[in-house]
Each structure stands twice: as structure tokens, then as C-alpha cells.
């Protein structure tokens, strides 16, 4: 049975009882509109912990003024059904007043790894993420917390955060779950029209092709990234925020190919912003 927790007191009492019984607790933080990608995190959590808590909170502070906060999908009944199907133990469902009570005045800023890519394209976004994830980790106090490689920069930010702040939690990375045509599952895919859907899939194809030509043909990095941008625009993306080859930990941009690098992209398709990333080898 899925426990639905909406107050901090019931959350604390529930987790305390589990811990006293010697159970290992996992947290999967989400913003809801759950899909099989989120469920891959829940399933993986099940294999590593006795209890799985999934949080759903559409965090206003990580959306920019012109982003999709108000229209972000909130299909809560479907989310509950999916969590029940996948045997999550508890749904932590705080409201905005619980998360950010009157007088709330703290922000968590991780520097370095937030300065490029989405950090540059979405000012303030990772402060919102680092702050809310700090709060979720403090609230639930899990032994482990799981994050998808789909949001690769976010994963790097969270890893940095818990090391720097000595948070007693292990961060587990879960590979990106994709549709059969390669499109990374995302809550934002439901914004795509029928005509945009085949365009969206090109992002992963372009990343894989770019990795291939750098790895197998020794093509120069700058030329490959430039071509990738052009491919995306030609395919029908309206705007490309970045296609970048980066150090897989610091996310510093790389001028030369390295086997352990990460290739990341973000582009807009109409009003929908899509991101994806792959390991180059
Ligand atoms: P959200 O976009 O709902 O994603 C929740 C988690 O699911 C993230 O760790 C994300 O990387 C992972 N995820 C999404 N799609 C995935 C896929 N196709 N394969 C594997 N994992 C996938 O990320 C957030 O919410 C928020 O920023 C949050 C961390 C909850 C803070 O508000």
C-alpha cells in the first residue's frame, strides 16, 4: 500500500519507525508527471533499499520567469497509480507552504559545475534545484537517493553538493531510459505535437553520430559540435542552446576528444526545451 504523506510530522514519524526497525531507506525526488524513466529509479531503489520514498513537488524556484512552471503537467491520480504498481512505500507530497513557509530566506548555491550548459542557459535554475534537494534530503534523511543521468548536469551538481556539505547519503546514478527510437523519456515529451515527435528523436541520433565520428574517425571536436548544431537546426529544432563535449565530472568544456568525456545537448522544439546526453564511449 502506498502511504501518502503531506506533513513533515508524519514523514518524520514514518521514516523514524523504519529506521528503528533497521530498514534502509531510499529517496527518489521527482516533480511528478511520472513515466517509465522515473519508474526505472524506483525499481533500482527497490533493489538497494527496504523502503522507497518518492517525492513529488513541482519546485517553483527552479523555473525561470518565462518557463513552464504553471503549465507543468500535474496528473496526480496517474502518478499515485504508477507508484502503487511499482511498489513504492510512500509518496512525500509537500505543498509550497510546507516547503517554503513564510520567511524562508535560504538558498544553496553550488559553483563551478553550475556555470556552463543549463546553468548558463537557465540562470538560477541550479540554485533552485540544490536548495530543494537539500531540503528533501534533510526531510527524508534517506540512506540513498537516486537521480537519472537524463539530467546529467543536475546529477553532477547533487554529487558535488552532498560531498561539500558532508550529507550522510549515497547518490546513485541511473542510466537514461529511452523510447525504442532513442528519445529520452521526459515529462516534457507530452508537450510535443505529432509532427514534432520525429524531430525530437533526432537529438539522440545527432549525439550518437557526433560521438561516433570523433571516436572512430578522429574528427576534430569543434567542427563536430558545430555540425551537430547545424544538424539539429536542419532537422527542425528552432534553437540550440548548446552541443558540448565536457569533462564527465566537472563539466568543463573539452577542446580535445577524451574517452571518458560526456556529450550534452539542449535545444528548443517550438516552445518545448529538450535535453539529452551520452557517454562518448
Ligand atoms: P524530474 O524531472 O521529475 O525528474 C526526477 C528524476 O527522474 C531525475 O533524477 C531525473 O533525472 C530522472 N529521470 C527523468 N527522466 C528519466 C529517464 N528517461 N531515464 C532515467 N531517469 C530519468 O529532476 C527533477 O525532477 C527535479 O529537478 C528534482 C530533482 C526533483 C528537484 O526538483
Going by CATH, the architecture of the largest domain would be 3-Layer(aba) Sandwich
* Average pLDDT level: 98
Number of helices in the DSSP assignment: 10
Structural class: alpha/beta
Tally of distinct domains: 2
Ends apart, CA distance between termini: 42 Å
Specify the helix fraction band. 25-40%
CATH topology-level fold name of the largest domain: Rossmann fold
Strand tally:
9
What would CATH call the homologous superfamily of the largest domain?
Answer: HUPs
Which strand order spans the largest sheet, edge to edge or round the barrel?
1-4-3-2-5-6
Q: Ligands bound here? A: pantoyl adenylate
Question: How would you characterize the overall build of this protein?
Answer:
By secondary structure, this protein is an alpha/beta fold. The chain is built from 10 helices and 9 strands. Helix 3 links the parallel strand 3 and strand 4. The model has no long low-confidence stretch (mean pLDDT 98). The structure holds pantoyl adenylate.
Amino acid at each position: 500500500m502506498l502511504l501518502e504523506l503531506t506533513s513533515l510530522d508524519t514523514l518524520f514519524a514514518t521514516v523514524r519507525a523504519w529506521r528503528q526497525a533497521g530498514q534502509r531507506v531510499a529517496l527518489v525526488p521527482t516533480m511528478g508527471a511520472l513515466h517509465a524513466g522515473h519508474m526505472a529509479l524506483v525499481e533500482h531503489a527497490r533493489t538497494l533499499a527496504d523502503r522507497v520514498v518518492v517525492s513529488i513537488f513541482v519546485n517553483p524556484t527552479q523555473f525561470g520567469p518565462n518557463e513552464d512552471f504553471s503549465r507543468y503537467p500535474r496528473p496526480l491520480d496517474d502518478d499515485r497509480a504508477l507508484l502503487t504498481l511499482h511498489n513504492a512505500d510512500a509518496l512525500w507530497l509537500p505543498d509550497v507552504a510546507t516547503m517554503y513557509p513564510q520567511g524562508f530566506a535560504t538558498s544553496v548555491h553550488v559553483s563551478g559545475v553550475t556555470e556552463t550548459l543549463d546553468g548558463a542557459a537557465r540562470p538560477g535554475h541550479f540554485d533552485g534545484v540544490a536548495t530543494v534537494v537539500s531540503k528533501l534530503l534533510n526531510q527524508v534523511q534517506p540512506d540513498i537517493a537516486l537521480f537519472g543521468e537524463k539530467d546529467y548536469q543536475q546529477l553532477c551538481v547533487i554529487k558535488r553538493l552532498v560531498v561539500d556539505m558532508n550529507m550522510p547519503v549515497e547518490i546513485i546514478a541511473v542510466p537514461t531510459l529511452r523510447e525504442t527510437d532513442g528519445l529520452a523519456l521526459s515529462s516534457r515529451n507530452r508537450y510535443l505535437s505529432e509532427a514534432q515527435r520525429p524531430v525530437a528523436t533526432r537529438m539522440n541520433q545527432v549525439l550518437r553520430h557526433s560521438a561516433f565520428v570523433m571516436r572512430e574517425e578522429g574528427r576534430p571536436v569543434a567542427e563536430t559540435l558545430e555540425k551537430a548544431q547545424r544538424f539539429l537546426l536542419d532537422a527542425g529544432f528552432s534553437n540550440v542552446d548548446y552541443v558540448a563535449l565536457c569533462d564527465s565530472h566537472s563539466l568543463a568544456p573539452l577542446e580535445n576528444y577524451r574517452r571518458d568525456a560526456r556529450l550534452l545537448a539542449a535545444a528548443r522544439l517550438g516552445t518545448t526545451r529538450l535535453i539529452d546526453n551520452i557517454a562518448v564511449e
